[in-house]
Amino acid sequence: MAPTSGRQRPPRSTFRRTVGAVLVTLASALFFFLGAGFSSAQDPPDPPTTTAPASPGGEETAEGTTVRGTLNNAGERLEGVGVRATTSTGEVVAETESADDGRWELTLPPGTYIFEVDAESLPDEVTVQTSVTREVTAGRANTVIFSFGEARSGSTVSWGETLIRTLIDGLRFGLVIAIAGVGLSLIFGTTGLTNFAHGELVTLGAVAAWIFNVTVGIQLIPATILAVVVGVIIGLLNNSLIWAPLRRRRTGLIAQLVVSIGLAISLRYLILAFFSDRTQPFDDYQAQRQLVWGPIAITPVNLACIVISLVVLVGVAFLLQRTRIGKAMRAVADNRDLAASSGIDVERVVRFVWGLGGGLAALGGVLFGLSELGGRVQWEMGFKLLLLMFAGIILGGLGTAYGALVGCVVVGLLVQLSTLVINPDLKYIGGLLVLIVILVIRPQGILGSRTRIG
To answer: Of 92, 395, 401, 411, which one has the greatest count of Cβ atoms within 10 A?
Structure first.
């Protein structure tokens, strides 16, 4: 009789079919919600006749409704700049000056106003959009954003330039998906867990950065570093409080998958309860002026996201290839029992992977909010990114970090290129179709190896 190991795993073919069924179900649900949101956007309902309760950023006082904004010129906060609100006849209703952090605030009765920046109070060589017309509504967050830089001419962009810019944007989006998805792939490779709560780690990282940036008042770059540290801690707590006890009890992988789905739903609605149901902007890098080099046009934030993603991913590759812990991670992913018998502390490796995955997810959340959501944080942003992460790592090969990188970049390119032929609001459908096709045709992915059963 052949010896058997103490830890039995279900056949990978059965496991893949189960994971595929769950993913297809979630993809179908997302199709439904995308379609519902798109149809509602095309045919909006009549506005309510009652006043909604006030929300943060839209407080009502005896004098009127609060309107806020922040004056940032490429990350430089502008202090002492005059801002005024006028009526269509030119009558000044209220005026103020920006504080040392660039923030300004006016209290106005509900109505339509023209918001202007006093050009004489601007620093030298700083230009700004002369005026913004905005309707001030009671009970809503009223924010006014001024565009800095010279106004661009309305020249027509050729199809070739549009294609090049879309390809660059797809590369940027794919790298952001890869930053968040590599941790998910490493967790699967070392533990066999398909973690559906990984999207909430992405959201928690973005929310942590927003709290440090907006609530505490820390500039976004150090706030992002602190958010990555928070992500590492959350990843370690996830492992020590939930997954390590389940592994000690030899809980099956299918049962763990169901637990991760329940954990994802719980975390998602806890974020909704304690954060906000509205998108909340970061304080920094809101108004961005595009850098143009011939057919290439990209904002400094998007360029920084590409550079940061490449540097981090190269660092992860170096970690896997050149360090002892990286070699141990690859050994555990290849054969957990053999790695344990050769003297590798498997639980220590798993703890490191969870911490690394949490940190990468947090960084991916901040980059996703900055580059894809216009510098904003939204309570279900991780869920929107989750199925694209799965599409990328399944396309590249489950459990392989390099496969996850390749697959996520391909998915990002397909998603952005699809906007050339379909409505941008429906662009995620392309990535989800890739997920379904790969599960049907080649479930092991591009760089994954076919496993023989029996």
So the answer is: 411
φ/ψ of 131, rounded to 5, equals -155, 155
Residue (of 358, 374, 355) closest to 305 by Cα position: 374
Provide the residue type at 390 as one letter. F
Contact at 8 Å (CB) between 364 and 201? no
The answer on 202 and 88 residing in a single domain is no
Q: What is the full DSSP assignment across 79-129?
A: -S-EEEEE-TT--EEEEEE--TTSEEEEEE-SEEEEEEE-GGGSPTT--B-
d(CA 168, CA 291): 13
Domain span including residue 75: 66-136
Higher pLDDT, 165 or 88: 165
Euclidean distance between CA atoms 38 and 54, whole angstroms: 27
| pTM, to two decimals | 0.67
Q: Find out whether 114 and 144 touch, Cβ atoms under 8 Å.
A: no
Count of domains in the chain?
Answer: 2
- The model's pLDDT over 33-48, given as tens digits with 9 standing for 90+, comes to 444 443 433 444 444 4
Q: How many CB atoms lie within 10 A of CB 260?
A: 20
Residues 304 and 412 in one domain: yes
For residue 152, tell me if it sits in a domain. no
Q: Do 70 and 206 lie in a common domain?
A: no
